[in-house]
Amino acid sequence: MSRINDFIKFNLNETTRKSIAEYLWIGGSGMDLRSKARTLPEPVTDPAKLPLWNFDGSSTDQAPGDDSEVILRPQAIFRDPFRGGSNILVMCDTYTPAGDPIPTNKRFSADKIFNHPDVAAEEPWFGIEQEYTLLQKDTKWPLGWPVGGFPGPQGPYYCGVGADKSFGRDIVDAHYKACLYAGINISGINGEVMPAQWEFQVGPATGISAGDQLWVARYILERITEIAGVVLSFDPKPIPGDWNGAGAHTNYSTKSMRNDGGIDVIRKAIEKLGLRHEQHIAAYGEGNDRRLTGRHETADINSFSWGVANRGASIRVGRDTEKAGKGYFEDRRPASNMDPYVVTSMIAETTILWKP
Amino acid sequence: MSLLNDLVNLNLCDVTEKVIAEYIWIGGSGMDMRSKARTLPGPESNPSKLPKWNYDGSSTEQATGDNSEVIIYPQAIFRDPFRRGRNMLVMCDTYTPTGDPIPTNKRFIADKIFSHPDVVAEEPWYGIEQEYTLFQKDTKWPLGWPVGGFPAPQGPYYCGVGSDKAFGRDIVDAHYKACLFAGINISGINGEVMPGQWEFQVGPVTGISSGDQVWMARYILERITEIAGAVLSFDPKPVLGDWNGAGAHTNYSTKSMRNDGGIEVINEAIEKLSKRHKEHIAAYGKGNERRLTGLHETADINTFSWGVANRGASVRVGRDTEKEGKGYFEDRRPSSNMDPYVVTSMIAETTILWKP
Predict the structure, then answer these.
(1) Which of A37, B75, B166, B241 is paired with A209 by a 20 to 30 Å CA distance?
(2) Which ipTM was obtained for this model?
(3) How far apart are CA A349 and CA A207, in angstroms?
(4) Are residues A33 and A93 in contact, defined by beta-carbon separation less than 8 angstroms?
(5) Which residues form the GS catalytic domain (chain B) (predicted)?
(6) Which residues from chain A sit within 8 angstroms of residue B2, using beta carbons?
């Protein structure tokens, strides 16, 4: 395998100016990532200078067979950690040939919200805590769990160390460095409460960039689990019973919240969110009802609550923020399979634009 | 899998100034180590300049769910042998949000003792001999032992060589170099009397730093056994019967003991220790009664004894020290699962501060 790997790692910079661009997009289910690559005559760093492309939408549930072309519009460029050199990953969104966003394109409406002058003026920052579970490839049972059985109960695994407590760290560590290399603002990682469950955080990222970075981080993670021969799951409650679910807690602040007196702005924002609880929940990920039970450090899906340092609430305000009188808050409701374009723009819309 | 390792070993120095800091702390049981990582904007060598952080104490039995934040204070920095580059491992201790040490934080009290002017003046040195046992992951039986049975009796294994006598040397050797890379003052390693059992020594190290280095060495060892797929045990008597237990003999000296006439100071110190035998034993590790039987090179737990070159005594003075009239002595009572912060500070407190 070493000779195959030598080719994969080949540095073409000495032989050619050409670079490879891997175009990424979100498929018809809203969670399946797709990608294909093309050769560019020379390195490109500005997404606006990249060519539009297209793909067969009839193969991804995004177009009928007799009118199958879906157009890819490059939106963000990252360094390719797999190909190295001047090669790139390109996050795209999806349009009809006539130029309209197709229904599954959530980035388009998010971008409109983030471009609204009132929202732009508030410089909304997001820090997203993406949880996920690693599964054994053939059994679809969590990595490290005995096939046909269960590991010891939760307790030792959160931030745990050791062969009996931590399953899949090499994937997590490879992902951390790959994302830093790519230019994603990955701020940390930790082992989660359920064994074989992990978390990485992306942020703070401003506006639409949070969604771009999180989607590319998910793509890189899926590529790495592919190399490792392990299956990646973003299901919010992969194992029923006394096992934690997987969420995507979304930390949020605006310029006003970060400035002196911000704590009042935060309170008002949380109030507004409380008035639109059902609408947010509906957009916060499929299957979240299996996860938001009120147990396992979640708030019940039907009630809205908030508290300082309270991990059983819908929204948590950190002690730092309470003490400083300004800062940010954490919306703990989104599921691990949420669409960050939807969640981030909806939080901005409700707290900045919406009037009760 | 080489591609995965390439990513894990990626050198980010050319691509970004950012560094990864793994914050490490001791969990609710007093022996479980926990860690999580964060991205820092640049390298840092002074622990007091690193940001404080926090974690979910309700997941480590150190806080309740409605008031779950435990604050971690960076106390010592080591180079990260796993991520290399300028990345770091950070030994932390644990506080409430109001700044008080939480009950399991033994470092805080130790640090007070080591900061006492009388103790500081004596420059207490420690050399800790950490023994441990390696276990097979799924059977929880010692590494190299036949499943469902026993190896030949003790005899050939102490410092032994050969596949029928040394089990797990790659773990031990990897750990040795990793610790040296990290900046830990690891002074040696050897195979122990029981097969599958090993020892490393950390020292001489002054004051509180001894505890920091031993805990960090333990963390690195658990990370390495995790990679190797073996389970690490600090149990003081892992297998009942005619098999040695595991200890953490603590070698100790003060400035006065190291100077001419030190042998008198040593004798006085040992006297004081004999008068507080019960208090020390109570703090020297759980389950020690299974180990300190008077057999297998231990002293019986209920009696205090000392002697020159006597491995069956509670405290042993080396022949070198006796001959030169100065030096150090070895407290053989602590078990492998002792807390070095507790043991080192207690020895200093009893011998330097305590008056009978």
Answers:
(1) A37
(2) 0.92
(3) 11
(4) no
(5) 106-356
(6) 1-2, 5
